[in-house]
C-alpha cells in the first residue's frame, strides 16, 4: 500500500514535496489552488525535478471550482484544458480517459467491478 498526502496550497510546492518525502509519504496529491499553487505560479521544471529527486509519485487533485462535471460542453472542455495546462507532468503520463471516455486499451463489455475478484 502507498500512502500519499495532499499539498497545502498556502505553502511553497517544492517545500511541500520535500516535507512529504522527509515524513515518509510515497506520493503527492497535487491540488492546484490559490494562493501559492495556482497554475500561473507553479515553476514546473522545479516541481518535476523535486518529484524526481525525492522519487515521489503524483496524482492530480482538481480544484472544487473547476466545472469538470458541468452540463455545458464548453465549460467542461475549458476546465479540462486548464487542468491539463497546469499539470507538472508530461502529457504522456497524464491519462484523460475518465474525462474523455477514450481509453488507451480496449475494455470488454464482459468486464465488471468484480472481474478481478473472481
Write up this protein.
The protein has 118 residues and is an alpha/beta fold. The chain has one domain. 32% of the residues lie in helices and 11% in strands. The protein has helices spanning 13-22, 44-53, 73-86, 97-100, and strands spanning 4-6, 27-31, 57-61. A three-stranded parallel β-sheet has the order 1-2-3, with helices on one face. Helix 2 (44-53) links the parallel strand 2 (27-31) and strand 3. Helix 1 runs parallel beside helix 2 (44-53). The longest helix is centred in the C-terminal third of the chain and has 14 residues, at 73-86. The radius of gyration is 16 Å and the shape is globular. The mean pLDDT is 81.
Largest sheet: 3 strands, parallel
**β-sheet strand percentage:** 5-15%
N→C terminal distance = 21 Å
Instruction: Output mean pLDDT.
Output: 81
Amount of helix: 25-40%
Number of helices: 4
Q: How many domain regions?
A: 1
Strand order within the widest sheet? 1-2-3
Going by helix content, strand content and strand pairing, the class is alpha/beta
Radius of gyration: 16 Å
Task: Give the number of DSSP strands.
Answer: 3
The ordered H/E elements are EHEHEHH
Shape: globular
**Uncertain ranges:** none
Amino acid at each position: 500500500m502507498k500512502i500519499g498526502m495532499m499539498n497545502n496550497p498556502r505553502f511553497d510546492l517544492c517545500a511541500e514535496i520535500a516535507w512529504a518525502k522527509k515524513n515518509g509519504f510515497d506520493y503527492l496529491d497535487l491540488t492546484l489552488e490559490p494562493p501559492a499553487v495556482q497554475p500561473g505560479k507553479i515553476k514546473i521544471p522545479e516541481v518535476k525535478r523535486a518529484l524526481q529527486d525525492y522519487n515521489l509519485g503524483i496524482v492530480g487533485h482538481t480544484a472544487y471550482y473547476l466545472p469538470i462535471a458541468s452540463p455545458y460542453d464548453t465549460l467542461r472542455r475549458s476546465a479540462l484544458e486548464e487542468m491539463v495546462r497546469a499539470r507538472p507532468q508530461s502529457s504522456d503520463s497524464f491519462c484523460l480517459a475518465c474525462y474523455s471516455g477514450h481509453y488507451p486499451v480496449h475494455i470488454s463489455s464482459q468486464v465488471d467491478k468484480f472481474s478481478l475478484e473472481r
